[in-house]
Amino acid sequence: MLKYVAEEIASVATNITGYAIIITDDKGIVIGADSENISRIGELHEASIEVMAQGRMKKHTEEDCKRLKGTYPGITMPIAIHDDIVGSIGIKGESAEVEKYGMLVKMIAEIMLKDRIEAESAHIKYENLQMLVTMIITSGGSELTESAIDNQGKLLGYNLSLERVPILISRKEAVPESEKRREMYETEVFHAIRKQFSNRQDIIVVMDSGFERYLIFAAVDSARDTETVYDKCRTIQKELKENSGISVYIGIDRICYSIDTMKEGYERAAMLLDSALLGLTDKSIVRITDIPLERMIMEAAEYYEGKNLESRIRNILQDKNAAMHMDLILNWCESMFNFAETARRLGVHKNTLTYRFEKLRDDYGIDLHDFGSTIAIYLCIRITKLNN
Q1: Triad 118, 8, 58: Cα angle to 5°
Q2: 235 falls within a domain
Q3: What is the pLDDT of residues 341-386, one digit of tens each?
């Protein structure tokens, strides 16, 4: 790890002290240096071997340097992480002058190295967690598969038999180009999520970096906690809007009790979220418990996936004006069959609306004043949109 941050340490320390600085590995080989000494990389700095063996700083005079290969007058100090010596730092200059910078440079090196190690450790943790969730949401349901997933969860410190609520959080619009290179676990959205869902058993992973979509399996103690989950989601939404101007949409499923139901819960949460993103509901946080119509539509969508729906819907979908016809039917039903309100929603004159009603009746045999038939077609359109 020191090798990847050595040049950065040398550059920062040189800028602060004004003295030439080298970094060696645990064998005394130079792996980092300031810009003027970059040619020394790969050379042996013999003074470092003795310093690392003794675990303390040493000064080197002109006389010392004659017997120590690749060594210049100055000081050499060990770099230690958790009491393990992993390398050394050499500062070139008059010993009395450079010694006063010794502890500062050592501290800079060790802090930068610790930060890099922690960042690398976190990255590995998130990659392993991502793999675990992928196994969960693609599992086939066999006992062997579930046993493997359960064991993987235990290795990462997660008890997958706990009750959890699946949640999907996403921006509606794609992430701006200027933000795309950011680490997904360092975004405002992730920090807002982590602030609310901080239980060690809460599982949080990235599902789509393009829209900053995150999946959460929030650990809960009982059904009463589902209201707490909802309140946390509202807080996330509110804080992101107020602090960063970011709008997010959220889908929340019911409690899951097993690996198999976690997979199903993810799929339902995805449909709930999509219903918000597609404008199928006026809610920005969609719960499966408080939208019975959407719940029925989603369950019907699962049933009808790949099957034939109302034949007249197929004919409408093949029409070049399919979007216009579907908007008319959706708005007619959702305005409670109010002619004037439907015209207002569509932004058309009442005469134009009358013409469109007649067009549907003449071309497809759809009488929008027939409640039963219209509701059936409305549901078919919603199912088609959701499946798409």
Answers
A1: 95
A2: yes
A3: 899 999 999 999 999 999 888 888 888 888 877 888 888 887 777 6
Q: In what order do the strands lie in the sheet with 84-92?
A: 30-33, 21-24, 84-92, 74-81, 58-60
* 3-state SS track over 171-205: ECCCCCHHHCCCCHHHCHHHHHHHHHCCCCCCEEE
The DSSP line for 142-167 is -HHHHHHHHHHHHHTT--TTS-EEEE
Residue for token pair 């002109």: 62
Beta carbons of 253 and 216 less than 8 angstroms apart:
no
113 and 164 co-located in one domain:
no
If one counts the domains in the chain, the total is 3
Sheet of strand 248-252, all strands in order from the earlier edge strand to the far edge: 203-208, 213-219, 164-171, 248-252, 285-287
Q: What is the pLDDT of residues 128-146, one digit of tens each?
A: 899 999 999 887 666 667 8
Length of the chain: 388
Decide: 158 and 151 in contact? Cβ < 8 Å: no
Kindly report whether the global pTM for this prediction surpasses the value 0.70. Answer: no
